[in-house]
C-alpha cells in the first residue's frame, strides 16, 4: 500500500487559452481518489495550492508574475509532500512542472539520491523565456529544471536535473529552437516515429533500468497531448498521431511494474474542450494503471 497525496494545481497562466484551472476538480469528479483507494492505497486529498504573490511582468511573456508565483508555491508543496508519500499533482497546464520538478529534485538532493524525470508529451517543453516565440511558459519547464540560462526572474535551480536523467517520450511537435538545443544534449528523447518503428518497451525499459541501477527517484509528467486527440480531445495543444490508449496503458503498466515512480503530474486537461468527461476519465484510468490497476481490474466503461 502506498500513501498517495492528491494536490490540486489549477495553473492556467502558462498559455493564453484558458480552462486548465478546472482540471483538478475534473479529476475529482472523475473519481480519481476512489480509483486509487480501490487499489488498496491510502489516499489523502490536500486540496488546491495557491500561487505566491508576485508583481513581475514582461511584455513578451504571458503572465510571468503569476507563473513565477505558482513555481515557488508548487516547489514548496512538492518538497513537503515528498516527505509524506507519493504526490500526484492534478493540473493545470504544464507550467506547473516548473515548480513540481523543482521541488521533488530538492527532496531527492536532501536524500542524496538522483532525480529522474519521464516526460510523456507531444512537445519537448525545452524552451527558455527568450527562445519561446509565443511567450507561453508552459513550453519551458524542462529548460528551467535542467538549468538552462534565461530564467533569472524565477527561483534559482540549485539541483538541476542532469540531462541523462531525463527521458522525453512521444514527441511530434518540436520548434526549431528547441530541436537545435535538444540535439546538443544527452537527453533521452523518442518521437512517435521511434515508437512506431520499435514499440514502447525497448525505448522505455532501458531508461527505467537506469533509474533502478542508480537508486533514483522517478517523477512522471503525463500531458494529455501525449495521447492521440481522437482518444483525448480535452487539450488546447492537440497534435495528431499521438500514443494510442493501449500504448499509454503499457507505459503506465511498465512504470508500475518497475516500482520506481515517486511523484506524478497530470497536466493540460482542459474540461471546456472535453466530450462528456472522457479525457478526464482516461487520464484517471492511466493514473490507476501506473499505481497497480491491471487489465482484469479495469472496469467496463458504461455506455454514454
Descriptive keywords:
alpha/beta, eight-stranded parallel beta sheet
Draw up the topology in text.
Layout: E1 3-9, H1 23-29, H2 32-37, E2 42-48, H3 64-82, E3 86-91, H4 96-111, E4 115-120, H5 141-145, E5 166-171, H6 176-183, E6 188-191, H7 192-198, H8 201-213, E7 217-223, H9 245-258, E8 261-267, H10 278-290
Parallel strand pairs: 1-2, 1-3, 3-8, 4-5, 4-7, 5-6, 7-8
What does this molecule look like?
The chain has 304 residues and is of the alpha/beta class. It has one domain: Ureohydrolase domain (Arginase, Chain A), CATH 3.40.800. It is 36% helix and 16% strand. Strands 2-1-3-8-7-4-5-6 form an eight-stranded parallel β-sheet, sandwiched between helices. Helix 9 links the parallel strand 7 and strand 8 (261-267). Helix 3 (64-82) runs parallel beside helix 4 (96-111). The two termini are 33 Å apart.
